[in-house]
Each structure stands twice: as structure tokens, then as C-alpha cells.
Design goal:
about 280 residues; alpha/beta; 5-stranded mixed β-sheet; 7 helices; 9 strands; about 20% strand; extended
Length: about 280
């Protein structure tokens, strides 16, 4: 099930695993040169402080942010359409891509508004057993052992929706339910469906991937800088590319006073007893 149909650009987003705000920008002319640094991400992923930190530290680097479909998250790197890509695991990194994991996303069940299970803050996977799972069962580990339609072989032989938006339409119509990462559930929130946490389903993971062999030395350096930001490197760290602060002149140390040599020890001489003066008789 694809996460989105058409890529679009963003200028700002929220923190990881939180709601995502996207701002559409005017498309660049077809004859425009490629951006100096290209960041791709799958639908629902939040760039948050990483994108902000990058643009603040590299104001002169023209950067593009492109959202794509999950099935294309490897292709955008291997075909050199992006320099880095935020991906949703599982992800086939192969022998030509680097991958580091960033954070986990809570799984959510999406149900039609008014469903009795929405009265609870947390829904168990077993409580959904008698409902129809709209998406491909392979996307929900454990459903084959829990779902009545899987155990009894009564699941309709219908293709799973290709887009999340299409699956949400079926949920709103009361056909069944879907299980999505929290960011996607929030991204596709609407008045006629609601989502709740679901237990018994492993969380999904978000990572960042990039090419191992980058032919362009400048791009390779920028990738290194961006991955450093994602890993928490600050602008003042030794690996950062920010302009170094001018060195402050060293403070002059006060001249050390020469210590006086101690006087040689001389034992105190006992005083002589005063002589008694004779008085006149």
C-alpha cells in the first residue's frame, strides 16, 4: 500500500513521530539546475529540527525536500535522484547503501467514526479479530494467527488498495480497518475516521539512507555534514562545517612574584639576668 500518490515539497515539519505539516511550493522550471543538496523522505516522516538545522547552517546551499512513495525510497538513491533519504523500515540497503535507524513509530488502528472500540485509548490486535483488514495482511505481522478471516479462510480475494488515502476511504465506508504508523494515521486524519493505539503489533522504524560510493566529492561532504546533524552533531563540533569562531587573545598571566628567601634559622639566645644595683645605706 503506497503512502502517497504524488511527491511534493515542504519547507517545515514537526518533531519525529508527531503530526506533519507540509507546505506546497511552486515547481521549479524543467530546465532549472538540480539543487545543491537533495533530501527525500517517505510520506509521514517528519524532518523537524534536522531540516531546520541544516538550512540554518548552510544558507547558501540550495536544498530541495521531496516526498515520495515507499516503494521508491531505494530507487531515488540508486538512480541519484536524492543525496539522502528518510526511509521506513524494512528497507533493503543492499551492498551499495548506508542505513542508520533513527526512531520508532507507534502503530495505530484506524476505524470508522463511532466504532465501539474507539471508546478505548488502547486496542488489542485480538479485539479486531472479527473485522476485515483492508490492507495486505503481510503488513501486519500476527494477523494471520489472530484474524478470523485468515483462520477460517473467508478473507475476500480482493487486491489491497495501492494508496493509503484509498484504504482510508474504505475504512470510512465501514468496510474494515487499517493499521498505520502514528505519523501516517495523523497525516490522513479526517472527520469520518478516528485512530487509536493498537497493542500486539510491533512498532515501525524510521531510518536515513545514503549511497556508500558518492562520486561527487562536494555532495559526499554535504551528506557527511547532514548525517552528522541527524546524529546530533552541533555546529561547534570538530566535524561541523560552520565558520570557526575567532580565537580570543590569551589573557596575560600576572607576573609571579619572586618569593623571598627565608632568613637563616638562628637559635634565640637566652637573656642574661639583670644585675641588682646596690642601694645606699
Amino acid at each position: 500500500m503506497s503512502e502517497h500518490q504524488n511527491p511534493e515539497s515542504i519547507s517545515e515539519s514537526t518533531e519525529p513521530a508527531e503530526s506533519v505539516e507540509t507546505v506546497a511550493t511552486a515547481p521549479e522550471p524543467t530546465d532549472a539546475p538540480p539543487a545543491d543538496f537533495r533530501i527525500a523522505y517517505v510520506s509521514g516522516v517528519s524532518l523537524g529540527k534536522w531540516g531546520t538545522a541544516w538550512t540554518e547552517r548552510n544558507a547558501r546551499v540550495r536544498t530541495s525536500f521531496t516526498m515520495g512513495e515507499r516503494e521508491d525510497q531505494r530507487r531515488v538513491l540508486t538512480e541519484n535522484l536524492a543525496d539522502v533519504s528518510f526511509v521506513r523500515l524494512p528497507f533493503d540497503r543492499g551492498d551499495d547503501l548506508h542505513l542508520i535507524k533513527l526512531y520508532e513509530e507507534t502503530p495505530m488502528v484506524v476505524l470508522p467514526k463511532g466504532h465501539e472500540l474507539l471508546e478505548r485509548a488502547d486496542v488489542g490486535l485480538g479485539e479486531l479479530a472479527d473485522l476485515h483488514l483492508i490492507q495486505d495482511p503481510s503488513e501486519v505481522p500476527g494477523w494471520a494467527e489472530v484474524g478470523t478471516e485468515m483462520i477460517e479462510g473467508t478473507r475476500p480475494d480482493l487486491p489491497a488498495p495501492e494508496r493509503v488515502a484509498d484504504a482510508i476511504e474504505l475504512v470510512a465506508a465501514g468496510i474494515g480497518f487499517v493499521i498505520l504508523p502514528q505519523s501516517l494515521a495523523r497525516l490522513h486524519d479526517r472527520k469520518d475516521v478516528k485512530h487509536r493505539r493498537v497493542s500486539g503489533v510491533a512498532p515501525t522504524e524510521i531510518g536515513i539512507a545514503w549511497r556508500i560510493d558518492e562520486d561527487d566529492a562536494v555532495r559526499a561532504e554535504r551528506v557527511e555534514d547532514f548525517v552528522g546533524i541527524v546524529r546530533g552533531r552541533t555546529a561547534n563540533s570538530s566535524r561541523g562545517r560552520a565558520e570557526p569562531e575567532p580565537e580570543k587573545p590569551a589573557k596575560k598571566k600576572p607576573a609571579q612574584q619572586q618569593s623571598k628567601k627565608p632568613a637563616p634559622f638562628r637559635p634565640r639566645q637566652p637573656r642574661k639576668p639583670a644585675s641588682k644595683k646596690r642601694g645606699r645605706r
